[in-house]
Amino acid sequence: MDQSAPIPRPPGTPAAVRALRDRCTIPVLASGGILMAVMQTVVVPLLPDLPRLTGASAAAVSWTVTATLLSGAVLTPVLGRAGDMYGKKRVLTAALVLMTLGSVMCALTSDIGVLIAARALQGAAACVVPLSISILRDELPPERRGSAVALMSSTVGIGAALGLPLAALVVQYADWHTMFWLTGALGALGVAATWWAVRESPVREPGRFDVLGALGLAAGLVCLLLGVSQGGTWGWGSARILGLFLAALVILALWWWQQLRTERPLVDLGLVSRPRVGLSHVAALLTGFAFYANSLVTAQLVQAPKTTDYGLGLSIVATGLCLLPGGVTMLLLSPLSARISAARGPRITLALGAAVIACGYAVRIADSRDLWMIIVGATVVATGTTLAYSALPTLILRAVPAGQTASANGVNVLMRTIGQAVSSAAVAAVLVHHSSPVGGVPVPTLHGYLLAFAMAGAVALAACAAALTIPGDGGPADGTRRARRATPGARDGVPAGT
Length: 498
Prior knowledge:
Elements: H1 15-41, H2 50-54, H3 58-61, H4 63-86, H5 88-108, H6 112-122, H7 128-139, H8 142-173, H9 176-197, H10 211-234, H11 239-260, H12 269-272, H13 275-303, H14 316-344, H15 346-366, H16 371-399, H17 405-433, E1 435-438, E2 441-444, H18 446-468, H19 478-485
Antiparallel strand pairs: 1-2
Helix pairs in contact: 1-7, 1-8, 1-9, 4-5, 4-6, 4-10, 4-17, 5-6, 5-7, 5-9, 7-8, 7-17, 8-14, 8-16, 10-11, 10-17, 13-14, 13-15, 13-16, 13-17, 13-18, 14-15, 14-16, 15-16, 15-18, 16-17, 17-18
């Protein structure tokens, strides 16, 4: 049962200061989400030059991306659960501190081992979005909650679209360490703003933290995502990859068994097994796959040499600018997503978003030679992603008790992350299989790119179908009403035996 008694506010704070803090809560949380996404993206323009700058191999350099992916996937559900138990603002601030510390470490070193460790620290910031969404649910009145949650969920795409051109500009015109000094300074500012503007949520989920469950989930996810992310490099049929997938299967099966028998589990599987929650997670995985292919393929397509007869030979900066309209669109359209969800329900918004993503890939298949059509297609995909990503947390908020919103949204973000990892591996496999030599270097063919678009579009249609099978939406107070009805023996907000 939730402990919903308000936490006392510091005495003596003037009313005008309290009002200013309340007005700043949404912008501060949204800026934290954007900064997190920027941090994940900024290393991408550096990847071709990092072997020379660090004296490391290309395989070692790739771990600056893989380490962030792995730590983010592992820590998001764990820190989400910790936020529900010990305080969402407290855990959110700690995650931003780790992200800032990682940026400072990157700025101070050129050693690849330290860089990889620092990037793993930065992965902790992946929990910023689910924790912020949970804070918004607890602190905002219902009439403001929908648009705020939609904006918060869209920050992932907004930050990714802003991060690439920003990082490319810094790398092109300044020392590469400057980029990390910049993100470190922004991170420190974000920590201070969060401490000042965000109130600690009064909603808590009491109990003992499930350490064994956290370790089991971490081990299983590391094996799974390491196998997915390194399959193309190590060989999908190699003993290492097959061993990782087998280990992931065994560990996650044992983890599932342990969670069902733990009084206070890390992830409430009874809640996850409900169609409204479980299907939302499936839709998140599929949407993450479809969304991520857009950035991956567009960046490679427009940078392809002109000698391929389809490539535009654009620079990294110009490539980032091609994706920028999509980021601006996500920022502008997040309120529209909230209005559609309020009028028709978030599952309809999710289905519409997935359908729009599929339409965007249809545009990409129709014409991927003209720059303006490439930008239009990428922006249409970004539009659909805005609708879908904004609807997912609203579905979760309506389906779970207030005391489990951070952990449930953490699992939802985890499913998006897994979808993105699988998308990266699948797109790479398609493009490698459909390549031809250009100047002695294998370059993906246009047919390979079109197949990648078709694959992502088909997955988007599958996400649309999954969204339409989610049972009808209830009111936003459903989780609260279930929590009030819960008996002491119930763990998921429903009386035992129902």
